[in-house]
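User: Hello! I'm new to structural biology and keep hearing that structure can be predicted from sequence alone. Could you demonstrate with FAD-dependent oxidoreductase? Please show me the input and the output so I can see what each looks like.

Assistant: Of course. The first part below is the input, the amino acid sequence of FAD-dependent oxidoreductase. The second part is the output, the predicted structure written as tokens.
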Amino acid sequence: MYDPLLDNTIPADQRAPTSLWAEDQAQPSYPQLTQDINIDVAIIGGGFTGLSAAFHLVEQYGVNVALFEANQPGWGCSGRNGGFVLPGTGRLSVAQMHKRWGEETTAGIYAENLASVDTVKAFIDAGIVCDVQAGGYLKLAHTQRKTEQLHQQARVFSDTYNDKIIPLSQAQVAAEYIASTEQYGGIYHPNAFGVNPWKLAHGLAKRAAVSGARIFGNTPVLNTEFSNGKHLIYTPNGNVEANQLILATNAYGPNKLHASLYNRNFPVMSSILVTQPLTKEQLDKLQVRDGLMVMDTRSLKYYYRILADGRLLFGGRGAIAGRNADSVKSKQNLLNGLKMTFPELGNVKIGQFWSGWVNISMDDYPRIYHDKATATSYSAGYCGAGLAFSIQAGKRLAQQLYEPETLPKLPYFQTPLKKYPVAPMRRTVLHTLYWWEGLKRVVGLD
Ligand SMILES: Cc1cc2nc3c(=O)[nH]c(=O)nc-3n(C[C@H](O)[C@H](O)[C@H](O)COP(=O)(O)OP(=O)(O)OC[C@H]3O[C@@H](n4cnc5c(N)ncnc54)[C@H](O)[C@@H]3O)c2cc1C
């Protein structure tokens, strides 16, 4: 698999990722750029961030926009994720945010997280068909101590931020949500829902194109320059001159693509297994509430949901380097996690296995940043929780360019992504972390 830390260019003109989501779907074919053009805003990257930015720039500000995607929209993370539409992004708990930024800012971030789910809902209400599965989200503790922490969080969510989070005991989880063998209590977010993310990405691309954004597929950006207040953007068969540049490449941008993101991203692989449709007997054993999406509290988390046709989608960490994405070992590691979580499924048959890159930011929260001096913006670093947030971020990127004074005063908008101090060591550190977490699991310290 393409590896953004090692490869200097992204592969182009690839088919949709081999996920369940794109199976049996028509392949989109946005045309390649084949001439030189002049525009106001150039967007690199056709995932949720870039597509939402393109849509909002045209719809709300009437801007002349073109988006350049190396493959077809949704080819990156956006078309191959788990489809959990959740409030929240990054890896900081509310308590950590509180400590870092105080009460008012934490409340603002919380409101932004809730707004991101509303933004996705608004697109769906306006006609994007993406197989919505209502059912809510259960965060499931894997120790008693974690149950207590989750319940404490739920109290803060409800009392301070007026969000309806339901604390659940182990008995309630087992009786009403999932008959899991290894878990404790948890908290339930009723407003979260599942989607087919590939269909959502294509619905967004269509909305942006119908609004008037020009979308180019099979158009990898090879290089950019900024000179005399203009961006020059080079692609294989046509070059672009633009006043503003938005980098919406997130984990998929080659590390050296643009100076403003160099060594500020950490692409980490997440993988997904999907089983064949479970039998009635298997489903009866698991007793998962309809449409429920689940994630545990381990530092290397597992996440899962039962799809409408009875398949179990199960995700977790993937390989470290792109070349090992599809290795037998990588698939087996995830299968072991599935079997540990659901021993009652025995030798369940696997249908699909695929992987994608998420972007871990140095300080565990993303940035939606505009640098006036170089007329360059980006949004990145969602740490694996970016479906809803990236669509909100696209809206904010547009607003940041044309109505910056109306942005909420939140830390995302104020500073650039931090640089990794010893960038070449990123993968060595990750390797050690995986080894340590694996050891903790084996000796029961997890
Ligand atoms: C397996 C997996 C499961 C996940 N599950 C969930 C989930 O259930 N819920 C959730 O909230 N989040 C989830 N995520 C994270 C979520 O998918 C991402 O945060 C989100 O899709 C990021 O969108 P994006 O537009 O920023 O990036 P992307 O969708 O990755 O888009 C970036 C695009 O830029 C393009 N690109 C890069 N370089 C160039 C170039 N030089 N020229 C042209 N184009 C270029 C790429 O081809 C790519 O399409 C998951 C991620 C993975 C990998």
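User: So the tokens describe the shape?

Assistant: Right, they're a compact way of writing down the 3D structure. Reading them back into a model, for example: The chain has two domains: 1-132+194-266+363-446, 133-193+268-359.
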